Request: fold
Amino acid sequence: MSLPKATELPIGAVIPEPGSTRRNLTAGWRTLRPVIHDDRCIRCQLCWLYCPEGTIVERKGVFQVGNRTYDVKYEIVYDYCKGCGICANECPTKAIEMVPETP
Amino acid sequence: MKVYFRTLKDLPREELFAPGHRMCAGCGAAIAMRWITKTIGPNAIIANATGCVEVTTTPYPETAWMHPYIHVAFENAAAVASGVEAAIKTLKRKGMWDAGDTKVVVIAGDGGTYDIGLQSLSGMLERRHGVLYILYDNEAYMNTGIQRSGSTPKYAWTTTTPVGTAVRGKIQWKKDIMGIVMAHRVPYAATASIAYILDMVNKIKTALEYTEEGPTFLHIYAPCVPGWRYPENKTVEIARLAVETGYFPLYEWDHGKLRLNPPSNNHLDKTKRKPLKEFLKLQGRFAHLTDEEIAELEEELDAYWQYLAKLQTL
Amino acid sequence: MIQIQKTRRVEALTGNYAAAYAVKAADVDVIAVYPITPQTTIVEKLSEFVANGELNAELIHVESEHSALSAVVGASAAGARVFTATSSQGLELAHEILHIASAMRLPIVMAVPTRAISAPISIHNDYSDVMNARDTGWVIYIAASAQEVYDTIIQAYRVAETVNLPVMVAYDGFLISHTVEPVELNNEEEVRRFLPRSVRPYTLNPKRPVTMGPLASPDWYYEFKYQQVLAMKEAYKVVKDVDALYGEKFGRSYGVVETYKMEDAEYAIVTYGGAAFGNAKAAVDIARERGIAAGVVRVRLYRPFPTMDVLKVLEGVKALAVLDRAIMFGSPAEGPLYKDIATAMFMHGVDKPAVNVIHGIGQRTMYVEDMYKIYTMLRENPRKEVVFMGVRV
Reply:
C-alpha cells in the first residue's frame, strides 16, 4: 500500500475530515476489559460521564432488570475502550468488572 | 455561574470529540476534552497550544476534533485566538462571516500557560478579546516526558526535579495562575475539576456566554497517569480528592466577586477538609514525602485558604 | 461610514507611509500592531486611518512581534486579509512563526523596513534581518523607492492569495522608510477590484470544520515541505504575471530584476535596495564618462530567486561585483546574494570573475566614490573574492 504523493495531499497539512481518528481502533491497547453486569446497574450514568474515550453509549429503550424497569442502558463500545478501568472504579454499585483480555 | 445543566440527564449526549486518539488510557485531559467540546457546542473555533492534547489528537492524517481547530506553536495559543477573534469581528462587520455567533476557545496545558504562554495570555486578557481560555492542568510538561513547570507542586517528583539525597523534588511552590488572571480584572475566571462534571460544564458554558463582555478563563484540574504515577483507573478519584482535601478548591471569580463552589464552600473550616495525605498517598510522585514535608504542605495550604477567605470578603 | 479614496493623486510620502496607504487601499481586515524602529510609522499611520474611519480593520495591539505574527496567522486562517510589519529584532523574535506561516500556506503580507541585527544594537539600515529570513518559505520582494513599496504591497496581496504563500516586502530602513518621495496613489476602488477576495482552500469555519497545524510523522512531513517547494516555483510565474497586470491597470510595473545601462555593459554591480542601487547608478554615469562600460542590476524579487532573469542580464558582462549588505558568517563567501548568484552561475555553466563586495553594514555610508572604485577594480583586477568595503581594519 503506497501513501499519497505531495501533489495529492491537501496543502498546508490541513486535515479536512473531522473526527477521523475514528478510523484508528484503540481496542488493542487494553489488557483488561470492563464488563457491565446489567443486574447491578442502577443507570447512575457515571461510567458514561467519566469515560475518557467517550466509548460508552447510552441506549434508549425499555430494559427490565429484575423488578426494575429502566428507559436507558449503558453499553461499552469495545472498539475504542483502552481498558483504563475508570468506569469500574467510579461505579457506585460495583456493577463493572475488569476482566483480563487474555485468560 | 449560571446553571444550564441541573442534572446528569440534562447533559448533551452528542460526542464532539472522536475516540481513536492517542491519549493514554485513563487520561484526565481526555475527559476534559470530551466535556469541553460538548459544552462549547459546534459553533466554536478551537486554538490549541502544543502539548499532550495537541500531539495525541492530531496525528496526520487523523484528527479527533470535530470543531474547526488550529495549532500554531507552543507559546502563542492566546495570540492566535486573538487573531481569530479579531478576524471574525471584522468579517462580520463587512458582511463576510457566514457562521453566525462563532465563539473562540483556547485550550492549553500548564506548560503553555504558566510558563512559555504567559506573555501571550496576559496580552490577550489585557486587550479584552472575547475568548474563553481553558487551561488543562496536569502539573508538568507531560508531553515531553514529565518535566517540571511553573504549575508543578512543591516536592513533586518530575524528571527535571528528581528525588535524590541533595534535592527532593521541586523546590518552588506552584504558581497561582488564577491570581494572575484575576489581576487582569477579567469578567469571569473559575477553577474546575474533571471529577465534578456538572460544576465544570456549567462553568464552561457560563464562561462562554461571558465572552460577550471580554476574556474568560477556566482552570481545569486534569490528573496524568504516567506523570503522577498512579494506576490508570484512579484518575477521577484523584481529581475528586484534590477538591475534597482542599488542595484544589473549586471557586469562581465573577465580575470581581469570589465565590467558593460546593464542596469547597465548606472547606474554609479546616476540619471539613479531608487530610491532605489522602490525596498525596495515591500518587507515586509524592511517595518520598516525609511527615515534616507533608506538614509543610499542609501549612502552606492553610495559608492559601486564609487568603481565599480574605479574598471572598472583598 | 468608511471613506474610500476614489481618485488618483500624488502625495509626498515616506516609504513607510506609502506602505500604510497601500494597506488601506487593499481593504485589509486585521492588522497586528507592535512598534520597532524603523517600522513604527507604518502602524502609527494605520492606527490613524482606523481612528479616522478611513480603514475598516481591527487593530490588535499585540505584546510582542512573536504574538504579532501569531495573531495574523490566526486571523488569516479564519479567512481575513491581514497585515503586519516588523524589522530586525522583531523579525528575529517572530522567526519561529515565519516558518509556520509559510508551511500553513497563509496569504499574509508583511512589510519589513530592514535594519541591522544586534549585537551591538543598531537601529540603522542593513539587510541582515531579511537575509536571515530568506529560507523561511516566504516570497520576498526588495523594493527601492516609496512608489515601489506602495505598488509592491498591493501586488503582494494578489500574489499571496494566488499561490497561498506569505509575502514579505522589504526595503531600506530609514533610507527609504523615512525619506519623502512623490508617490502616486491609486483609486482605491480600482485597487479593490484588482484584489478580489479569493475563495481560500481552507479556513477556520464551523460550517466546514478542518484541523490546521497537525503533527506529521516521518511518513508525511516531507510531502508538505515539497508542496512548499512547488508553490515557490509557481510563485515566480505569478509574481511576473501580477506585475504585468498591475502595469496594465495602474501604469507602473517593475519586473523581477531592474537594470540600468546593462544593454552594453561589460562590468556590472548586482545589488538590492534603494540606497545601493541609487548610488551604483550614479557611479555608472561617472564610470561611463570615464570610458568604463558599466551597468547595475537590481534584484527586486529575492525569493523565489529569479535565476534565469539574473543570468540573462549578465550575459554580456566580463566581470561582476555583487554588492551585499548582510554578512553570513562562516560562509564560503559572506554575502547572501553572492551565494545565490554563484550557485546560479555554477549550475548553468557560467564562469566569470565575480567579486563579493560587502558594504553598507549598519548603514555605513556607501559613497558613490566607493561604487566607482568597484568598477575600476573589476576592470583592473577581476577575480573571485570577498571584499569588505568601508570598514576600518
Notes: Helices of chain A lie at 46-50, 86-90.
